[in-house]
């Protein structure tokens, strides 16, 4: 008998249909009740794609694979919020209504804060990794939310504090005009003032949609500030750094403080342009044996993009979440998002990417932060060998003290 | 004359100059759009992706073949222009008899696909590309620091815009082109191969976008979404200048660059919106655009 392509296709379709139809309804339902669903809501197509995006998904899947089978099934799904709060809110509602138990990642602070409200309204769990705003554990903290890898306060303290100590006591901010930029500028400015420095001025740049920053850089230079604080991220930061070099701003002794810079941005800029910049991270792949081991395990899933602290956070957050589920049981977890989060807060965190840590009552996870300097091309020994450690801030001092955030969960 | 409207005069001059530089990009991109719209009646929404392709081809030439900036300036427009010719021949040419909207949707779709493919292979965080050694450094003008490369961008794009305008207004080829825009059937009756003229025009418009992409590579982050950010503004420029008006699009491009630059000083938050406010005003008062014929 000759098998044509058409008949083969029809046969496959038939067999597939029979397979689905043949599943007893009861068993499918039982399966759903015993399946934990993790939704990675992230930027799959915009300027934060490499800083979050597919590598965040890969790291969540890596955690699921390492966690193994412990009496329940785990399913990871992903979606693109396009850095738009309205899209993010719709997806989050839809997912939670369709039985997704936890949403993880959610970069872009405006989206991160919007999803924070939905998780609380639906009483589901929410692990924010990608957003920077410290308001997630401050004024807008929620019993349904943990904030996993970093925040604006911690960036401000590490990078801002070190810059002022090094003599950069007058600042001009170039700030992305949305929740994240405002939070980062506010937190850094507080540190600058507390350390005896002055903020001379700031300019708010439209986000997204600004590609040319030369005009803002020239304004910053004209202010005669010693430091230009870049309260932006991704392509915005890259464009600022590139154009500051072009306009000879750094050569005139003005320091560029890239307050949030990921290793992926350094990769995009190239060491020739990025060398000498400082950045603050809670994870770097080449930090110690455990981070190197984690990176080697996850790289096959994301060969062209090394994990940064957000990616590692998606791994670590997923792992800790699954440990909490195993501890409390699937039925209890499905009943209440707050209970999951409380269980996560009660257990110490432990993984290869960050070592030991803990989650505070306001939802802030405490881990050490590291100040790095970008290597020169001569110092770099191999692919993605970009950063050298300058200073470590222990976990207890790295983040905003519990009482100072204004979180309602702490006062009660 | 220390201060003008509360802004130090040197700073204001600097901003005017920077606005002019950004205007150079707007002018080159809107020029390509205007040329394409003038003859093809197609609103080329792939333009942003083709601008991005220009920058990426420059990067590929450097990293894969070792060919530097000057080669890229020549080769990238040719390569991307050729891809435009293929797109026109295989897809866009089927739509000339239909409403504008179909061409718009098709080119918009092609743009998204191209962007998606590049994003898939190169990620979104960008690729490094440095200005050529000859164009590094800059001059101190007293009121600001002028990088050599930016100066080069303005001069080069002015020359390109002027050459294009001369070609269309003063040469025989340009005369054919303008005649075909007015009445294609008649021009064809005179023995001019109009379909080929249309194909080459599209290729030329695309090459202009790619050329702007190469110019942009050393100063902007080379990433797949670099065109999307720019193209919406450029469309507004074309609308303000008048669809299909060559000189209009060039003048409007430079003019709006300056307006945007000044907004960045007086009200930075509004700098992304100001062009669209102007567009709305122009559409209400002069629907055909500042330089268009009603």
TrEMBL record, chain A:
InterPro entries reported in the protein's UniProt record: BCAA_transport, Leu-bd, Peripla_BP_I, TAT_signal
Residue span, Leucine-binding protein domain: 35-375
Pfam families from the UniProt entry: Peripla_BP_6
Record key words, sorted: Amino-acid transport, Signal, Transport
An example Gene Ontology biological process: amino acid transport
Protein's UniProt keywords contain Ribosomal protein: no
Family indicated by similarity: Belongs to the leucine-binding protein family.
Protein known as: Branched-chain amino acid transport system substrate-binding protein
Taxonomic lineage of the native organism: Bacteria, Pseudomonadati, Pseudomonadota, Alphaproteobacteria, Acetobacterales
From TrEMBL, chain B:
Any one GO molecular function term: transmembrane transporter activity
Primary residence: membrane
Keyword Ion transport carried by entry: no
Keyword Transmembrane (UniProt): yes
GO BP of this protein: amino acid transport
GO (cellular component) term, any one: plasma membrane
Membrane topology listed for this record: Multi-pass membrane protein
Pfam families, per database record: BPD_transp_2
InterPro entries: ABC_transp_permease, BCAA_transport_permease
Transmembrane segments annotated in the record for this chain: 12-35, 42-62, 68-88, 100-122, 149-168, 200-220, 232-259, 265-284
Subcellular location: Cell membrane
Keyword vocabulary terms for this entry: Amino-acid transport, Cell membrane, Membrane, Transmembrane, Transmembrane helix, Transport
Coiled coil: none
Family membership noted in the UniProt record: Belongs to the binding-protein-dependent transport system permease family. LivHM subfamily.
Family matches, as PANTHER family: ABC TRANSPORTER ATP-BINDING PROTEIN, BRANCHED-CHAIN AMINO ACID TRANSPORT SYSTEM PERMEASE PROTEIN LIVH
Stated name of the protein: Branched-chain amino acid transport system permease protein
